[in-house]
Specification:
By secondary structure, the chain is mainly α. It has a 3-stranded antiparallel beta sheet, with no helix packed on it. A hairpin with a 6-residue loop joins strand 6 and strand 7. Helix 2 packs parallel to helix 5 and helix 9 packs antiparallel against helix 10. The longest helix has 22 residues. The chain is globular. 54% of the residues are buried.
């Protein structure tokens, strides 16, 4: 078994920190830290990151029963109604937004209004499905030159599919599940490369469904291996297996996870892209490491003996190293872990705390300490 004794001290430090930062952040939506260590906050409730702060608070509330965590999470969820009702600016990331908030709360409390929000969000996501191309379009508009947003799909969408599986189970309507499976098949066909690295963006003709080209997105190039995109695939394919039990999905999840593990440096914290020359100055992306660690823990839960041990060990090593090297415990930063890279090609958010990196750190830690 792995040595997870470190997780108790890590969890104590985490809870103490969030008890303090939650009083500063409140029922608002942090994105990434600035050069002072303060989290930048957004009032745009349609932003894809809005679910991670309340989702993080719910994870902590599960363990602590600290009422202020639940109160803040619920206030955030109520604020997100603006985006849900406005609709026009919503995108494929409604899964990140309402799976971690309304669906989480419905599963915990049975609140029917939370259920309604989750089903509305699932319907929005299902409406993005292109039937001829068998993919979910990512955005309504985009800043990718010479691309039709109706034809752009990205690897991140895999992480939103649990919203569709949940909606299918909750309503008894198989159409949500059919869409999730169809998109997953398209990911396997067009996003997962022969070496088990991952394309970030694939552009399709929205009228014929034919693949047009691969886009580099937030990776270094169209042939490189953006680490967070790889982590979305590890975790997303593991989730696809969880909901379908299709053994091919577990095989793909393991193959991509194996690629991720092979590319880790000696300290087990990934660089922002696995396909660039790497040295001591190459930025890391702790958010990629923590998302991948969560995926590896899910993979391990579906395996036995030595096969499970491999992924448990890797997830534990990533999380422990991140805690020891990039944890923000004894300073005034709002973030939990540093070393995140938001968008390296655009020079945005290098060596910062990212709210989704913090979320997946909490998710991984909460699982590791119970093993």
């Amino acid at each position: 078994m792995i040595d997870n004794s470190w997780t108790e001290d890590a969890w104590t430090a985490l809870v103490e920190k969030v008890e303090k930062t939650s009083q500063v952040i409140g029922p608002r939506f942090p994105t990434m830290t600035d050069n002072t260590g303060r989290y930048a906050l957004t009032d745009d409730t349609w932003r894809w990151v809005t679910g991670f702060w309340p989702g993080l608070l719910w994870l902590l509330h599960d363990d602590t029963n600290h009422t202020p965590f639940a109160d803040l999470a619920l206030q955030c969820e109520m604020r997100m109604d603006e985006a849900l009702n406005e609709y026009v600016n919503l995108h494929h990331d409604v899964g990140f937004m309402w799976q971690l908030t309304s669906v989480k709360r419905f599963k915990s409390s049975g609140d029917m209004d939370a259920r309604r929000r989750g089903l509305v969000a699932a319907s929005h996501l299902a409406s993005r499905f292109n039937i001829v191309g068998r993919y979910l379009s990512a955005w309504n508009v985009n800043d990718v030159n010479d691309s039709d947003p109706r034809g752009l799909s990205i690897i991140d969408s895999l992480m939103n599919l649990p919203l569709l599986y949940w909606a299918s189970e909750e309503t008894g309507d198989p159409r949500f599940r059919h869409i999730a499976i169809a998109h997953t098949e398209t990911v396997i066909k067009h996003f997962i490369r022969p070496d088990h690295s991952v394309n970030h963006m694939v552009e399709f003709d929205p009228f014929t469904g034919e693949k047009v080209r691969v886009r580099s997105g937030q990776g270094h190039s169209i042939t490189s291996a953006w680490s967070r995109g790889t982590s979305w695939a590890v975790h997303g394919m593991a989730l696809a297996y969880k909901y379908t039990k299709d053994p091919r999905y577990l095989e793909v999840a393991r193959n991509v996870a194996d690629f991720f593990i092979r590319e880790l440096p000696a300290d087990n914290v990934p660089h922002w892209d696995f396909g660039v020359p790497r040295d001591d100055a190459t930025p890391r992306d702790t958010s990629a490491g923590m998302c991948a660690a969560c995926g590896m823990l899910l993979i391990a839960s579906e395996l036995e003996d030595k096969d499970a041990e491999k992924y448990l060990s890797a997830a534990n090593a990533i999380a422990k190293s991140t805690y020891e090297t990039f944890g923000s415990w004894d300073n005034d930063s709002d973030g939990i872990i540093r070393g995140g890279t938001f968008n390296h090609p655009q020079g945005l958010g290098i060596d910062v705390s990212l709210i989704y990196g913090d979320y997946y750190y909490v998710e991984a830690l909460s699982k590791l300490r119970k093993i």
